[in-house]
Every structure is written in C-alpha cells, then in structure tokens.
Amino acid sequence: MNDLHGTTALLRNVRIVLPERTAEKASLLIHEGRIARVFDSTASQLPAADSVFDLDGLTLFPGFIDLHIHGALGVDTMLASADDLRRVSEFLARNGVTAWLPTLVPSPTEQYEHAVAAIKETMLGQSRETELAGSQCYQARVLGVHYEGPFVSSEQCGALHREHFRSYSGATDLDMLPTIGNERALHLMTLAPEINGGIELVNELWRRGWIISIGHTLAAVDVLERARAEGARHMTHFMNAMAPLHHRAPGPIGWGLSRDDVTCDLIADGVHMDPFMLRLLVRLMTPDRLSLISDAIAATGMGDGEYQIWGETISVKDGRTRNARGSIAGSVITMLDAVRMMLSLGVSEVHVARMASTNPARLLRIDQDYGSIEEGKRADLVAVDSSGDVRLTLVGGRVAHDTRRL
Fold first, then answer.
1. How many Cβ atoms sit within 10 Å of the Cβ of residue 96?
2. What pLDDT, in 10s, does the model give residues 46-63?
C-alpha cells in the first residue's frame, strides 16, 4: 500500500533501530499517529491493522531532526514565503527529515519580521492540516526558529555579515527580535557569551524559555563557565567559527571537549571538518553528546554553480561552498548526507540515530514525543535501503514520501 488508511498501520519485515539495539526482521504497529508497539522476530502472531506495509528488509530510523538549516532548492529562510517553506519541508521529508528549525542569519529587524511571519504562517498551516488529517501532516514539521546571531563575535563571523551584529544592553534588545507567539513554538539562539552583555543575555534567554547555544565565539574558559551556569550548555557547529584550540588558551574547543554536561552539534560534510576529526570527536565526546546538523543554504539540492544568497555571490563546487572572502558559507548537504557520512566512518546505526534524532530532540526538550522509536512517541520514521537512500518517510504516521514502487 502507498498510504495509510484508518487509524492503525503495521510496518513489517523491517530492521528497526531502537535506542539501544537494532531489531532484525521486526514489525511496528502505529495507532493514531503514534508508535503503539514494536514486535521483534520472535513474535508468533502480528495484530490486524487498517494498512500493512511490507518493507522488505529496509532499515527504519527515527525521523531526522535538523536544528540548523538556512534553506534548500533556491529557498532562503530569510526571504521565504510560507509556500517556500512548505517546499523545503517537502524536500526535507524526501531526505528523511521529519522536523526542522528554519535558521536565520544576522539581518535588519524588518527582514527578521518577514522571516518569522512566514515561519509562523507555515506552522499554523501545518497545525491546521494536522487537525484535518487526524493528528498528522504530510511534510517535515517546522518546530520554531533558530536565530544564528545577531549577538555573536565579530572576530568569528564565518559567513555571517558583521554589519548586522549586535551587543546586548538589556531586555529591550531581545524584544526587538520577533518571536512566533505560539507557546508550542521553539526558539533557539546561537550567541557568543563574551560580547558586551553576553552573560546577561544568556540569563534572560533562559528566563524566557529559549534554548541557548554557544557559537561564533572566541570566549575564554572563565566566560564559558559563567554562561554554562546561566543555562548555555550546547555549542553550534563545534570547531567551526570558534577560536582554535591552543595549549595555552583552550578556549571554546577545549572547554567543549572537557565538559561532560555540554553538548555540541557537527556539520558532517567532510568539508567543515575532516572525517578524521569527526571520528575522533565521536571517540572523545561519545555519541550521547553530539548532534548532526546540515547548516544547509538555499543552494542545497541545486548542484554546482553561483548563487545570490545573503546579499552576495556564493559559489558551489564539488559540494563545497565559498563566498567572495573565500570563507566556507554553510553547506549543501542534507541530514541524510550527514547520516551516511557517520555510517561510513564506522559509527553504529544506534549511535547515528542518537546523533540525528534523539539528541536533537533532547536539546529541544521535545524528547517525550520525538527522537526515538519507542512506544507512545510520534510515528516520525524514515526507512532507508542498503545504499542509504530514503524509501519511505512517515510524519506523525502519515506518508510524506514513498518510493518503494518506483
């Protein structure tokens, strides 16, 4: 069958990546958009269901969650309409992503207002579809917004534009950034705690319930410790746009490596970080502290060429982005590419699932519903074949992508 009919569905003959192991030749029952039960190969009888999917030995992962993505298919989250964001959501579902945070770069307030209004409209539209479809939508779900800046270091700007960076002098500076105005919407900010007012900003964000990540920073360890005490316990694209590790100045990289209560995310594209370093970080920090992100820009899915993004020309050649200053300017990978990269480095499927799904959900404080294949959680699922290609994506138990008959 190509779609789910009724309130129950059975996925059978599938390898399932569970939180602690991979179940071979297993089955999974979905009821009203949630995982009702997982059956291993010893089950003598499977329950009846309204729809049955024979997945013919595919591997089932929890749906990927992208914390950090600027766009795809020519769509830039800073300029996108709600329809544009829906196109990105459909593209992401084809690549195994079931939830994402549109990410915004430092910009004038009016551009922020446009971008957040489109995100809000997209979330509202997906919510209405959910009600009409009986608690499911048919594309990757927009969870909120990620502000990458503007409160970051001008000395570690990366591809961000310094002219839009800001310092923090009080709550009114934060009030200038538009929010979605929905209690279920998530708000994440990447910031540099060493800027003027940085620690006070961390405190205010924590008070307001924002998720806080440290990035685009050259902060010293004592500053980072103060930020951690105020609630900043995650780091954005670890090792990128940070002061490099030095034996007399450990900085953000040394601090991040040493703190067991601090998590980090990685761009696993082989460009932002050498594959050797990816493997080393998994060994040093363990998969429980690492999340995968795409940091994908509007050129993703478009191939090599030159693109007008963020007011400048960004070139893409052989999967590497470059702006006029010669800096890497985001990536053109998907979460699926990052998952493939980590698997190719010998990281187990269970650990990769944590990095692509479980850990992002935990960071966003939604792991009670998202991020792993467990009874009671949302049926956000992606089935891949032996080549690592997505064959089926379910969002809230509904088919968002299905190529099994093509």
1. 31
2. 888 999 999 999 999 999
